[in-house]
Design brief:
The chain is mainly alpha-helical and 201 residues long. The chain is built from nine helices and no strands.
């Protein structure tokens, strides 16, 4: 294709999206440049031309998926409109649940980034940034507090982050048997009937 021989943001975007679909279908290690070219209808040479190598494209595709997943979390936060911490948590999880069904390819690609973080400083750095932001922002979501995050609230953020990761993995393995947000919220309530209030240490 003649368009693949000239710089084209449209071609690059198409290759990234195609790489994400290939990662979802085949896994990072099994995806080849030919797979991506076939998936997108682009020239095989376009992969190297725009990204330098197949692995560079796959890395960018996973970083893009991480960014998209973070945006989905942010959107879920914006949709929370309750004052009760437990209800805020459940509604937030419902927002995440919806993104799982709507954006499965993106979610799978972002989850595969965890394994590749062992070998890519770029992917590891992106995940570190995402996690650090989540630890700071999730307590504000749960408690509705825009002030400074206390050490205890940061612990809550870490716990909710662990819950999100576990929820996503269970859903990817089998959506039919994975817990729904109401079950998760009820489990949290059973463990901590009186959750800490904002600003406590």
């Amino acid at each position: 294709m003649a368009g693949d021989r000239a710089p084209s943001s449209g071609t690059k975007r198409r290759l990234i999206a195609g790489a994400q679909r290939c990662i979802t279908a085949r896994g990072f290690g099994a995806t080849t440049a030919r797979d991506i070219a076939a998936e997108t209808g682009a020239n095989l040479a376009a992969v190297n031309y725009h990204f330098g190598s197949k692995d560079a494209l796959l890395t960018i595709a996973m970083l893009d998926a991480i960014g998209a997943w973070t945006s989905q979390l942010d959107q879920a936060v914006l949709e929370v409109d309750s004052d009760a911490p437990l209800q805020r948590l459940e509604r937030f999880l419902r927002g995440i649940h919806r993104t799982l069904t709507e954006q499965r390819e993106m979610v799978v690609a972002s989850v595969q980034a965890f394994a590749q973080a062992e070998y890519s400083e770029e992917i590891r750095g992106a995940l570190i940034d995402v996690y650090e932001q989540a630890r700071a922002n999730l307590p504000k979501l749960i408690f509705g507090d825009s002030g400074e995050v206390t050490a205890q609230q940061r612990g809550v953020g870490s716990a909710v982050l662990a819950m999100i990761n576990g929820f996503v993995l269970q859903w990817l393995i089998d959506p039919d048997t994975a817990p729904d947000p109401a079950e998760l919220a009820a489990g949290v309530a059973a463990l901590a009937p009186s959750p800490p209030t904002a600003g406590t240490e």
